[in-house]
Amino acid sequence: MKPFATNRDLRKTPTLIKISAVILATAAFFYLGKHLSNDGYKQLVFFSSSSSENSIPEVSISPNSNKTFNLSSIIPPNHTEIETAQPIPSPVTATETKANPPPIPIPIPIPIASPPPPAPIRTFGVLDANGVMSDDFEVGDFEDEAIEESRNKTEIVELRNDGVSRPRVRVKKFAMCRESMREYIPCLDNADAVKKLRSTERGEKFERHCPVKGRGLNCLVPSPKGYRQPIPWPRSRDEVWFSNVPHTRLVEDKGGQNWISRDPRDKSKFKFPGGGTQFIHGADEYLDQISKMVSDITFGKRIRVALDVGCGVASFGAYLLSRNVLTMSVAPKDVHENQIQFALERGVPAMAAAFATRRLLYPSQAFDLIHCSRCRINWTRDDGIFLLEINRMLRAGGYFAWAAQPVYKHEAALEEQWTEMLNLTTSLCWKLVKKEGYIAIWQKPLNNNCYLSREAGTKPPLCDESDDPDNVWYSCSIFLYTNLKPCISRIPENGSGGSVPSWPARLHTPPDRLQTITFDSYIARKELFKAESRFWNEIVGGYIRALKWRKMKLRNVLDMRAGFGGFAAALNDHKLDCWVLSVVPVSGPNTLPVIYDRGLLGVMHDWCEPFDTYPRTYDFLHASGLFSVERKRCEMSTILLEMDRILRPGGRAYIRDTIDVMDEIQEITKAMGWHTSLRDTSEGPHSSYRILTCEKRLPRA
To answer: 534-573: string of b/e by CB count within 10 Å (b at 16+)?
Structure first.
């Protein structure tokens, strides 16, 4: 017998023998696997696939495919459901090839009975004195404020934008208010609050009495029937559409004094001849007379910002605009209640305001000239408290012009009034500069020297050094307005406020009062002032180029969060023919003195309350960073509904704010019927700010 071949010999064995050995080994392993798997999962399905993309996978079926098994024996007791494969009904035949593949097994759930759920655990109620949960308690009524605030919000969903999940509020479409509210001013038309006043003898009913928070405007104020797009400036100075302000009371009362008229041949318009009660021959001639009386009254240079008290239809301020003077025209909403509405429709700065018991919403040393022509105010009553308010707002070295009957008539009662006025102005250290015809002009001193040299006990006294003459709003803690004070506001010892450059240099000169503002900066204040001006100058320049602002009919503009007034200054620099009222919110630092020192107009306001103006009075509203601040204090819908009230149909609003408030703002503006577009800022798409451009559409004819 030959010995066994060595390893070297085995490698020389023919290939056929090697293949046979491999096949036999494979068959042996398969046979063993089949017989050793009696206690396992017996249905085996084998797949084979080709590398070709269009090929259909082949399926081989285990021989156990037609057998059934008791699955409960292999399911753990704590499982309630298990997935298994659906048995294939028959083995694969020769015809079930690539053209006719057999069905592929699909896992299906097999429900298994589960134990009954445990008894529910009580997790509601209140804790009693022993710390035991109890449901023995009473449920009170819903608060009206909560119902009012949630009336229009229907749901909050998660909006995923670029992978960022943010809440989004869906808002129902706002309904129109009743027709009787088309000229509604919420804080001046609050009849319920006026009825509760203890007294109205000092004019309290003409002051602000705002609705309770949560019970304000919740609808859209309608326009008058036949409302038309306003006549553009400068034509609007001389004529406006009757349908936009459909009131004839002033024509009947003041037509003979050249205030306003209505041509019987063309009843579609009101005409404004430019006269007034004391200047029936026209405002231009009247202004020439004032400037001739006092040579230092140089309109458009030293005199840049003026206040017209009891303004009528604001012809005094309308004609000063052509002399580069901004005039704030104020009058109460009294028997001639539409005079401020006419002024704003003409395109002249104006606000509804009254001399009664509270300070007006303007800072100390704001106006270079204050004017009263037959303004129906008794300046000497109550120890001259109204003239003391004039003194607070008048810039050191500024002028007060009074045109009234006591100046030129020689009746006994009127002469007595003139004597009282002389005594009062003398005690205020005012100098009577000129009295000519029916006009008298006084000048306020430049410092406190005269006040300090008066005899002890002289009235009115100087205000305490602790008094802040720029505090014109109410205290947030006790919600009381700042009342008029029977004292003389002190002039700052450093002369700030009185020493401002002439126009136009003052527009970009950081004023001395910049250092008195309370906010988180000191050394870099002048740099912040200049940086804000540069910023808005660039932004407005971009708006003009990209958004065609010169084609927009901008006239009455409201900047809702003005800062140092940089936006208004930029509009002036780019020579857009409009005026801007810069609003300083009470929620931020009081920059109002700086705005007036620059030669601009401004006012203090709380945007959680309505604004003191008529509906449809502004062509453009600008809100930068307003909502991200004020949403902590009130509902954003409160502010937006007020914006809709004061914005003219066809007017626009630009809202520049952080991304996280834009979704809700868009929903509310759409519910108000505005047409909106969300745009990137000049910083690009990765900036945290966006600009929402809005347009309030004209009412359908």
So the answer is: eebbebbeebbeeeebeebbbbbbbbbbbbbbbbbbbbbb
